[in-house]
């Protein structure tokens, strides 16, 4: 019997999003089997594979140290964008330079310099982006994470994205993404913990598959356990329910403006994140049947 659930991911899997994700349906479904289920979610907005892996691994380690048996733990992860990256920073000079950069950034961000428990510390400070959006940060330092480097023009961030021939899915980025996926898989195997891998979008696995013959990818690819993996991306699966192409948004042109298709039930109003209805369908049709075969 599963007594403890650990989940991880990005904004597709984050409990601070207003219930428009697969977490609540999964917890409720497992509680039908065990009303005393305990649960820890490690995910956070904009996190990539490096932080997803670190946070989930830490939570597994703590669960085992608490006395739980490995076969009582279920880990369910939804992997994020290949190009997302994190650095641990506690140098005040570097932190201050980054905060200056954020004041010039248009749009939203995530709270920054969190620890592996998504804690902002006891005395958080605040920064404001160009549009006056307010975000917290830990003045003592922690993890800086970025979707694509657009929020910071400091050299070390921009250089990272320029190192590969492709800014978003170059070999180096695919290698780092896959290395973290394999690391969590092998840790769970070592400890005897059940793991289910999902992907938020098709491109995460496609990036790996298209480069599987490359030296940096091949030796990791050969370690993948496809029996524990749902290869189809949640985002694209929901597009198939709409009968449209697997594309980057469901925005439509109306009177010269891009707007969300008003008839769409499967996505949030941003046209990208799943709605609760879409998440429910993903769970009922894809995730639950897959897990049922494993537990």
Low-confidence stretches: none
The CATH class of the largest domain turns out to be Alpha Beta
Strand order of the largest sheet: 2-1-3-8-9
N- to C-terminal separation?
8 Å
CATH superfamily of the largest domain: SGNH hydrolase
**What count of domains describes the coordinates?**
2
Largest sheet, in brief, is: 5 strands, parallel
Beta-strand residue fraction: 15-25%
Could you say which overall geometry the principal axes of the C-alpha atoms support? globular
The count of helical stretches stands at 9
Alpha-carbon Rg, integer: 19 Å
Helix fraction, binned, reads: 25-40%
How many beta strands in the DSSP annotation? 11
Specify the structural class: alpha/beta
The quaternary state of the protein chains shown equals single chain
What is the architecture of the largest domain at the second tier of CATH?
3-Layer(aba) Sandwich
Per the CATH scheme, the topology name of the largest domain is: Rossmann fold
What can you see in these coordinates?
- This protein has 295 residues and is of the alpha/beta class.
- It has two domains: 4-83 and 169-292, Rossmann fold, CATH 3.40.50; 86-149, no CATH class.
- The protein has nine helices and eleven strands.
- Strands 2-1-3-8-9 form a five-stranded parallel beta sheet, sandwiched between helices. A two-stranded antiparallel ribbon has the order 4-7. Strands 5-6 form a two-stranded antiparallel sheet.
- Helix 2 packs parallel to helix 5 and helix 5 (171-191) runs parallel beside helix 7 (215-221).
- The model has no long low-confidence stretch (mean pLDDT 93).
């Amino acid at each position: 019997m599963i007594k403890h659930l650990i989940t991880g991911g990005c904004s597709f899997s984050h409990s601070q999003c207003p219930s428009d994700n697969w977490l609540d349906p999964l917890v409720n479904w497992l509680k039908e089997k065990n009303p005393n289920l305990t649960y820890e979610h490690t995910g956070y907005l904009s996190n990539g594979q490096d932080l997803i892996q670190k946070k989930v691994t830490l939570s597994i380690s703590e669960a085992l140290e608490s006395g739980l048996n490995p076969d009582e733990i279920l880990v369910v992860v939804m992997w994020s964008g290949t190009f997302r990256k994190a650095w641990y920073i506690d140098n005040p000079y570097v932190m201050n330079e980054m905060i200056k950069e954020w004041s010039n950034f248009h749009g939203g961000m995530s709270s920054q310099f969190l620890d592996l428990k998504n804690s902002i510390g006891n005395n958080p400070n605040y920064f404001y982006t160009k549009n006056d959006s307010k975000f917290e940060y830990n003045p003592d330092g922690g993890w800086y994470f970025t979707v694509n480097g657009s929020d910071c023009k400091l050299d070390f961030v921009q250089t990272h994205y320029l190192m590969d021939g492709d800014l978003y899915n170059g070999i180096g980025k695919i290698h780092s993404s896959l290395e973290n996926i394999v690391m969590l898989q092998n840790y769970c195997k070592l400890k005897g913990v059940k793991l289910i891998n999902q992907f938020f979008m098709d491109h995460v696995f496609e990036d790996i598959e298209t480069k599987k013959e490359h030296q940096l990818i091949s030796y990791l690819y050969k370690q993948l356990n496809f029996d524990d993996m749902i290869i189809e991306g949640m985002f694209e699966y929901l597009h198939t329910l709409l009968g449209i192409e697997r594309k980057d948004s469901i925005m439509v042109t109306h009177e010269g403006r891009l707007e969300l298709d008003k008839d769409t039930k499967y996505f949030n109003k941003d046209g990208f994140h799943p709605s609760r209805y879409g998440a429910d369908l993903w769970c009922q049709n894809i995730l639950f049947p897959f897990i049922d075969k494993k537990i």
